[in-house]
Amino acid sequence: MPIKILVAVKRVVDTNVKVRVKPDGSGVDLANVKMSMNPFCEIAVEEALRLREAGKASEVVVVSIGPAQAAETIRTGLAMGADRGVHVKAEGRIEPLAVAKLLKAVIDREAPGLVILGKQAIDDDLNQTGQMLAALLDWPQGTFASKVALGDADVDVTREVDGGLETVRLGLPAVVTTDLRLNEPRYASLPNIMKAKKKPIEEIDAQTLGIDLAPRHTVLKTAEPAARKGGVTLGSPAELVGKLKETGVLA
Question: What's this model's pTM, rounded to 2 decimal places?
Fold first, then answer.
């Protein structure tokens, strides 16, 4: 029997934007910066849509947590083909534990058979939300998925691990986090972009869910990486060896 799939998506700085650090080092400057859906989240949406198209899912629900602008990210998921959206409105920096608790509150209401998330967001690279969510729900989890095969009562997840690939079988409901090689996300067509404007997005005020959103850690300083030194053109292998010895690479 087809199941409901819930996909969590995050609004981040577009991958083509070179981020700038604020002059006071308090964080990244987001003023007038193009934002888009986290690339790993796009993969999660695409996988859910493919499962629905294969007759394995009855509905795909896209959920995002964040300020009013996060609705744009949900609309992107709807334009890709998701059925409806849920926007949990919250201001400020929301850490993974709070995100997982908010998602759990939505999942308790929606009762999906499968939850899919990107393995991490490219803004902080924390790779924590999926694992924390599975723990809070007490559901099995398959992380770093490069292949997902959904059955009637379980899901086989092929995971990318240090030694190669590992396949695990999870009883449903379950949590899956996506890796880069799982699929290639589709582009939203113009007709689907227009249709997405009419698809419903439910708004929920995070404060009404009774969850403490206070950050658990403080960012002391943000700094850009040191500038790379210019290269040197060498005329012979002997010069190369001499340069490597000079810099201490060779003894």
Answer: 0.87
